[in-house]
Amino acid sequence: MKALTFSTFGESNVLEYIEIPNPQLKSNEILVEMKAIGLNFADVYRRKGNYHLKGNPPFIAGYEGAGIVVDSNNSDYKIGDRVAFADVPFANAELVAVNTNHVIPLPDDISFETAASVLLQGLTAHYLATDSHKTTKDETVLIHAAAGGVGQLLTQISKLLGANVIGLTSSAEKAKTAIKHGVDHVLLYNEDWKSDLLKIIPNGVDVVYDSIGSTLMESFEVTKECGQVVFFGMAGGDPEFVNPRMLMDSSKTLTGGDLWSYLNSKEERIKRANQLFNWILDKKIKLSEPTSFKLSEGKTAHDFLESRKSTGKIILIP
Hints:
The chain is of the alpha/beta class. The protein has helices spanning 41-48, 112-132, 149-160, 172-180, 193-200, 216-221, 244-250, 266-281, 298-307, and strands spanning 2-6, 15-19, 29-39, 59-60, 65-72, 82-85, 95-99, 104-105, 140-143, 164-169, 185-188, 205-210, 223-231, 253-256, 291-294, 314-317.
């Protein structure tokens, strides 16, 4: 089979599209012929050598995708079944061995491209709005990077749950994307966004979803007394250390967020994914059209992702 690989760490030019042996199925695994694969910043971090990575060189990144079962060591899945997954390694390949505990059955009405576009980002948005913070009606939430993949979905889920949403973006063009997905107010990073926010809601917001990291202390500044900051990413670099005294004096809460704490069983994966799929089928959530690249064009896809010019999902097609 062909796979997008790298044998040394570095920039996108270390990526190689090469022939490697097919996966050998273990007990309780199925073999999936990939139809669409999600590309995420975690794949860039793995390529650069600063994120956890499984296997030996040549390494294969990718954890998210959808396809068709072509071989099975489990009676629950037969050849021809449509399936997807959000947390299975070595996904950047034509064939992937998937443990059945990680399989998400794919409804006929959900395309492979949609599944590869929504699972990691959608499941992240789902746990943020329902577990890290239990969103309630009439709350006001602030979402960093509101035009990004998680930001678009988190906006829509927060609105579904009755919240008002303020979004932060880096450009006027991205602000339009955020508004299109339901943000009530958009603020720009390159303006005095903290002052602008406190003009909208003087006491501060109920919760901030911070995926930037370097903005963590600013997020606390615009959070109301007894409010919460959910820290779930470091796209802008490491955050400053938080003084527990500040948390005590303001009765504010800092919560960490990581998807893998919640995708901890077969049942949880399927239940949460089905909630997402139902929202999509009921048109309660709309997805931006993904940008597609051939798997063989992986270098170009990585470069496009790192350029931060994309506002929707990037997917790879074998």
